[in-house]
Amino acid sequence: MNPQLKAFSRLVGGCLAVLLVFTLVFGGGEARALTLDEDLTSAGKSYLSSVLKDYAKEAQDTYGSSLKQAQKLVNGLAEDLEEAADPDTKIGDRAAILTSINTSKAALTDLAASFSGLATETATFDSQLQASVEDLLKLVKGDVRTQLTQNEDNFKKIADTLTALANDAGKIDDANLSNLLGSVGDHITALNTAFDVGGKALKASASLTK
Q1: What is the pLDDT of residues 163-187, one digit of tens each?
Q2: CA 15 – CA 45 distance, rounded (Å)
Q3: pLDDT of 22
Q4: Which residues neighbour 56 within 8 Å (Cβ) at sequence distance 6 or greater?
Q5: Which residues of 3-27 are buried (b: 16+ CB within 10 A; e: fewer)?
Q6: Overall domain count for the chain
Q7: Stated pTM of the model
Q8: How far apart are CA 60 and CA 46, in angstroms?
Q9: Which residue, among 117, 127, 106, has the nearest Cα to 61 in the 3D structure?
């Protein structure tokens, strides 16, 4: 079972168990209802913390691995482009470099898919969490959902930028090298910014569990 789904099942099962126990033991009376509400809120926060820790760990592991691959590939692409654009580079060497740049499209596309997957998993996690424990999360869902939405949006942005970079890399040849340099540079700048924002956003997600 997917770690997020497993954690989600534990959350729901735990909350239902807590609800059953406290309903049987403390059922009846306005004061007891207040105690039940306080205990459910406390239990809900505890289980939510556990679920978010699982989500944060799974997302950070995937993000960290994909980030290293992306940075290595993008840095190499930038170096190749710089060398290809150098007027002193020999025609034969430039042709080989451009071929190498073209072949990077597949790896960039795979990385884009990885970040798209993170965005999809985050959206699914968010949807399940909100639909199943809406009442229990009234005190904390605002911050949690805002953070998850930010994570989802950032992962999508990274995926889209990597896709655009992959497409440009696949089209570069000797004739359009100069025209595409600016576009590629913009994509790389956008990626660096998105990577930084993504790392901070994931740290913020983890901090919600403390």
Answers
A1: 999 998 888 888 888 888 888 888 8
A2: 10
A3: 36
A4: 202, 205, 206, 209
A5: ebeebbeebbebbeebbeebeeeee
A6: 1
A7: 0.60
A8: 21
A9: 117
Distance, CA of 137 to CA of 157 (rounded, Å): 28
Is 9 within the bounds of a domain?
no
* Residue position matching structure tokens 């990597």: 162
Report yes or no on 44 lying in a domain: no
Q: From CA 151, how far away is CA 208, in angstroms rounded?
A: 13
| pLDDT score of 35 more than 90 | no
Biggest CA pair distance of the chain: 87
The mean per-residue pLDDT over the stretch 126-142 comes to 64
pLDDT of 142 over the 80 cut: no
Residue 108, classed as helix, strand or coil, is helix
pLDDT, average across residues 137-161? 78
Task: For residue 34, report the phi and psi dihedrals to the nearest 5 degrees.
Answer: -65, -40
Q: Please, what is the angle between helix 30-85 and helix 177-207, to 10°?
A: 160
Spatial distance between the Cα atoms of 21 and 27, rounded to a whole number of angstroms: 9
Q: What residue type is 104 in one-letter code?
A: S
Tell me the residue range of the domain where 69 lies.
Answer: 62-207
